[in-house]
Fold this protein.
Amino acid sequence: MAEALQIRRRTPLRLWLSCGWLTVFFACAIFAGPLSPQDPLAQDLLFERLPPFWASGAEPGFWLGTDSLGRDVLSRMIHGARIAAIVALVAGFGACIIGTTLGLIAGYYRGWVDQIISRIVDVWMSFPAVLFAILLVAVIGTGLTSVIVAIVVIDWTRFCRVVRAETMAQSRMDYVDSARIAGFSRARTLFREVFPNVLPVIIAVLTLEMGIAVVVEAILSFVNLSISSDDPTWGGMISEGRLSIHQAWWVLVFPMITLFLTVLSFTQLGEALRERFDPVLR
């Protein structure tokens, strides 16, 4: 009981901090054009490797410095947030829809349906996720669509397993028996009675999945398997920055910090939502 009360007390702070950073993240993604002080693709070798604004040798307008081609780091980070947000939302919801649907069916109907879906999930999850994503992108070709498809194909199993387990637990509740006695069909009971009670868990897993999608996109960008290397992505900036860490550390450090805070915020938001909706803690 004491531990549950302690979790309840610290959850609001984690929730607010995570929501605050993610609000900034999505605002940058939506308003990347107006917020960027410079053109993220503009190259000028006269301004190569300029330091951040507080260091000697900085130039006005380049707040976080420039890279080896004279491109503004801050502007590229802001436009990189747009790519990360698209991947997080589209891939996250895509994996959620497929995994949730199969998880609901397997957990509620059970029997041979559950056996087939569960075996497919077991086989799918036996492959290393990152290597599987790299293989898929290499086969179907690079590009933002390929990255999203690869994440959806890999990560739907996470939703399926969690939703299946929660659906099994909910289907044993008395309200499900009452719905059946009232004459509800199995499909109506599933989507009208069971699904709303599973929804909080789905939301928590979806939030966690968005953070994972951002990481996977950054990894694929790092190995040049995402969008064009000229387009700004956090993984691409990290890959470029590691080559000039001794001459221009800011090209590597700032995208890494941004990526870390974004993934941490998605993770903490998902954990906070899980704790808030956990029936045991309630």
